[in-house]
Every structure is written in C-alpha cells, then in structure tokens.
Amino acid sequence: MNAWIQVALVLALVLGSAPLLGRHLWQVFDDRPQPLLDGWLNPVETSLLRWVGDRGRPAEQAWDYLRPLLLSNLLFGAVAFLLLLFQPSWLNPQGLPGMRWDTALHTAISFLTNTDQQHYVPEQSLGDLAQLGALQFLFFTSAATGLAVGFAFIRGLCGRPLGNFNRDLVRSITRVLLPISLVFGLILLINGVPMTLGGPVSLPTLEDATQILVRGPVAGFEAIKQLGENGGGFFTANSAHPFENPNPFTNLLAMVAMFAVPAATIDAFGRFLGNRRQATLLLLLVTGLFLALATLAITAEQAGNPLLAPWLSGPNLEGKELRFGAAVSALFATITTGSMTGAVNAAMDSLMPLGGLVPLFNLFLQVVFGGQGTGVAYLLVFLILTVFLTGLMVGRTPELFGRKVEKAEVVFSSLILLIHPVFVLVPAAITIGFPALQGISNPGFHGVSQVVYEYASAAANNGSGFEGLGDGTVWWNLSTVVSLLGGRYLPFIALLLLAAGFARKQPVPPSHGTLATDTGLFTVVTAVVILILGALTFFPVLALGPIAEAFSIPR
Q1: What is the b/e burial string over 445-465, where b = at least 16 CB atoms within 10 angstroms of the residue's CB?
Q2: How far apart are the C-alpha atoms of 292 and 180, rounded to whole Å?
Q3: Are strands 399-400 and 403-404 parallel, antiparallel or unpaired?
Q4: Is the pLDDT of residue 11 over 90?
Q5: Interior CA angle at 325 toward 322 and 330, to 5°?
Q6: For 219-251, what is each residue's pLDDT tens digit?
Q7: 327 lies in some domain
C-alpha cells in the first residue's frame, strides 16, 4: 500500500477515534459515571485499593501524589529485577539462566520507566514467566503510571486537586489499558500472532536441517506493547518479526495504537478545561509537526542511497522488511519515536542520514503526540513558556487557563525542558570522549548519531536504538540506567510540583490584557517555540551527526 495512503489512514483513524476515546478517558479520570462499567469494576477497584491500604483521598500536596508513585515503582522494579536475576529459581521450563546483574538491572529499570531498551536477546534470555511476570506486568504499570501523571498534571492546570495516584493507576489499567488490549490481542491472534505456553518447536527445513522456532504468549504481549507505548519486543527483531507483526494490516493497527491514547489524552484535556477548541488546536499542532517529519523521513528513504545509484535504483531497502517496504518503514519509525513507543519494524541504524534525523529529532522534542500521559504534559509545558514569552513581547499579562503564569511556573517549565538534554548530552560526551567505552560500529558522523541516539532514547523513555551499537556492556547498562531514571522521574517530580502550585493560584477573570491561547495564531507561535527550543538545544549534535553524514555522501 502506498505510504501516503497509510499516512492518511493512520491520521483518519487516530483523529477519528480521539473524541470517543478522549471522552472515555475524561469519564475515567474525572470520576464521571460509567453505567456499563461501574457495576462490576467498582468493587474490583475498591478491593484493590483497600488491599494496599488506600482510602481514596485526593492528594492535597504534590508529594502526597508522588510518594505512592515512587514507592510503588520502586517495588515493581525490585520484583522485576529479582525475577530476571534469579530466573532459574522460578518456573522456568526452558531452563534459561538468570541475567547478568547489570543487564537485569538495566532491563528492570528500562521496562519500569516505559522505555524498554533491550540490551539482551529475548529468545535466548527470557522464559515465559519472565516475559509475562516481569516485563508484561511492567507494560501495564509503566503505561498506567504515565497516564496517572499526565492526568494529575491536567487536573492541576485546570485548578483542581491532583487526585489519588493509586486510584488513577488502578483505573488506568482496569478501564483503559486492559480492555483495549484484550480486543487488540484478539485481532492479532486472528491474524496469526501466536498465543501459547507451548514453548519452542523444532521443524525440518527444505535443506533437511532442523530449525527451532520460538513461540510464546505473543499476542497479549504485543497488544499492550503498542497500546501502552512500551515498545519492547518478545523477539529480537521486534515488530519486524512475523510472529509479532505478520502483515500490513497488523502493521497499520500498530501505528494507530501507538498514537491512539496520546491523541485521546489531548481531547480529554479539552473536556477537563471546558474548551474543546483548545484541544483541537493542540491536536492540529502535533499533527502538523508529525506530517512535516513523516514527509522528510519517507522522502529520504524513497530517494534511495546515492552510493548505490550506479548499480541499484529505487528506495533504500537496507534493513527493511519487504512486506512493509521502505516508505512504510520510515512512517513506522516516525510514529514509534513520536509516540515514545520504541517498537521497530526495520533496522533504524540502516536509515539514510535524513531518515535517521527524524527519529532523533522526535526523541529531542517528545511532543509529536508524545508518550503515555507525558506527551500532553510536555506540550502544556511548552504552552506555558509560549504564554510567558509572547506576553513579554506584546506587553500583556502572562495568563493561562485563568491563572497567572509567574516565576515558579517559568522556573519549573525551564527545568523540565533542561532535564532531558542533560541526561542525553552529558553521558554522550563522556562516552565519545573515552573510545574504550563506545562500542560503536561506525566511526565518524554516524558513530556520533549512534551514541547520542542511545542516550536520547533512554532519557525520552522510548527504547529504540541504532542497533549497530555494542550496548551489552556494564558501562552502557549502568550509564543508560542513569538516563532512564533521570529522564523519567525528575520530570515527574517537577511536573507535579508545577501543577500543584498552579492549582493553588486564585483564578483571575479574563480582561483586555489576557492573551487568548485558543487561536490559530497562538498555536503557530507555540509550534515555532517548540522547534526553536528543540533546534537551539540539540542543533550542534544534529550538525555533528545526521546532517554532517548527509553532506558527506557524494551525489
């Protein structure tokens, strides 16, 4: 199928479903009645909350919300780490050994933070219990944690209490992630994705040899992997593997699933605010950014490799699955990095320089639909900074959603945007400065891209990689753990402190000096601010990596 038709289909399905799913999210996180669900889910949710000793009181301070968030995540990560480290001690019919301590630590924290970087070979390293009990469990809890933080931030900006973390976590799973994943998993099962605990099977090949095919409970794993924007693969090849992504239809569903919740979260924000126009303009903003980046990526891959032009014309098919093609693979790469999912259906390391620039730029921005819950939060942070900057330029009082934007909001917003480059550029500089640590397979400009991409993927909680990198070492495992934790939890803390302070402000009535944020002009200015801040922060790295590599290829 033509890539441009796929772009249109993805956007039509995502934007068409956003009001329906957005209304559902609004009902879930605003405690609106849901007659079809309340009767049988309320008792389950109440029992779970009582089991952890939570009485459902909303948080009065940011730390009242953060404390259970951090403690629960610490517990989830510790359990996953022990399951991976001592795998032989648990139910392990395949007889696989436990992971090395640094790999187990990296894997547990990577999946805990919704990143799912994989510095191991899943087929050779993990049995079904580890895949289900550790990783798939974290698929749900990490996505639910992101959703909870996103909606707590939305509540704060709308002048409401932040809510109750445990309640948000449970309802994210029971009312959003689990039911949709069940439907998605059934569709995958019908399309040939395996769902079995039968283990590997040996089959004879046409060459009279024996081949071992690894199977497992893949359909359920794959559904929440895409919907929860997790991205970690049951197989090393991830979504390029036919058992994870067998045909163009499942590929299309995967792309829609990756964007569905972020788009719906923006719509739900408009319902919380009581201003659907604001949400519509934000959706148009991120859609415009996505279209621009997808066009660049698809065009770059369709143009092919100039070095091969004398012998081979056509698109760049290196590292691509022919059942998807170069253009659709570029589209998938744009979506998986724009949504912070990290699943891949092609080798990212084999993209042309400008094709590889697009995923890297997405990781720098983090708002092209963005991560589970966090995408809309980062988008609103840019909105706060835009209100402040435009207010200074035109001499109007910086106000957002009926409350003044003052020093604290600007400081926290700036801090949130500075955390990401610190946890990308500092470890990348250290790694490049000490060649023994690098493990890169391509020296020069592409080597810079490989190193920076790994840390950008970790700090952005994406998980994809330029997999020419030898990243299974103690240095890479531990250094990316720092980026994983810093890029996940420090922004969470700053976001909730910002939201709690904003909620405590007294509302001010609109006046002639109030700058309207729900206009097309302001939306364009916001897009410019996003691009300028992203370009100013990371342009030197882009110039040393993909841009320099593009200019170095003879034409």
Answers
A1: bbbbbbbbbbbbbbbbbbbbb
A2: 30
A3: antiparallel
A4: yes
A5: 135
A6: 999 999 999 999 999 999 999 999 999 999 999
A7: no
Q: At what angle do helices 137-157 and 62-85 cross, to 10 degrees?
A: 170
Rounded Cα gap, residues 252 and 295, in angstroms: 17
Q: Which residues neighbour 554 within 8 Å (Cβ) at sequence distance 6 or greater?
A: 306, 307
Q: Is residue 355 part of a domain?
A: no
Alpha carbon distances (Å) from 34 to 24, 31, 37, 62, 175: 9, 9, 6, 28, 10
DSSP state letter for 320:
B
Lowest mean pLDDT among 106-110, 117-121, 513-517: 513-517
Q: Which residue has the higher pLDDT, 393 or 172?
A: 172
Amino acid at 181: S
**In Å, what is the CA distance from 262 to each residue of 17, 267, 370, 400?**
11, 9, 6, 22
* HSE, side-chain direction, 13 A CA sphere, residue 445: 18
**Rounded Cα distance, 433 and 481, in Å:** 19
Q: Are the CB atoms for 80 and 138 separated by under 8 Å? A: yes
- Residues 490-512 have pLDDT tens digits of 999 999 999 999 999 888 877 77
Asked if residue 13 belongs to a domain, the reply is no
Residues 6+ apart with CB under 8 A from 552: 444, 445
Question: How far is residue 171's CA from residue 198's CA, in Å, rounded to a whole number?
Answer: 32
The CA distances from residue 49 to 56, 105, 325, 435, in Å, are 7, 29, 47, 50
pTM of the model: 0.94
Q: List CB contacts of 436: < 8 A, sequence separation 6 or more.
A: none
C-beta of residue 500 within 8 angstroms of C-beta of residue 62 = yes
For the cut 90, the answer to whether the pLDDT of residue 257 exceeds it is yes
What crossing angle do the helices spanning 407-433 and 474-504 adopt, rounded to 10°?
Answer: 170
Q: Report, in angstroms and rounded to the nearest whole number, the Rg of the chain calculated over CA atoms.
A: 23
DSSP 93: T
Confidence of residue 1 (pLDDT cuts 50, 70, 90): low
**Among candidate residues 141, 131, 23, the one with its CA nearest the CA of residue 75:** 141
242 HSE (CA, 13 A, CB side) = 5
Bridge partners of residue 59, in order along the sequence: 163
CA distance 335 to 262: 12
Question: What's the total number of domains in the chain?
Answer: 1
Confirm whether 493 is domain-assigned. Answer: yes
Cα–Cα distance between 10 and 75 in angstroms, integer?
Answer: 37
Supply the pLDDT for residue 406. 87
Polymer length of the chain: 555
Average pLDDT score over the chain: 91
C-alpha to C-alpha distance for 256 and 397, rounded to whole angstroms: 40
Distance CA 516, CA 416 (A): 24
Q: Which domain holds residue 456?
A: 373-552
Whether residue 487 contacts residue 460, with contact meaning beta carbons closer than 8 Å, is answered with yes
Q: What's the CA gap between 86 and 514, in Å, rounded?
A: 59
> Which residues make beta-bridge pairs with 397?
514
pLDDT score, position 434 = 83
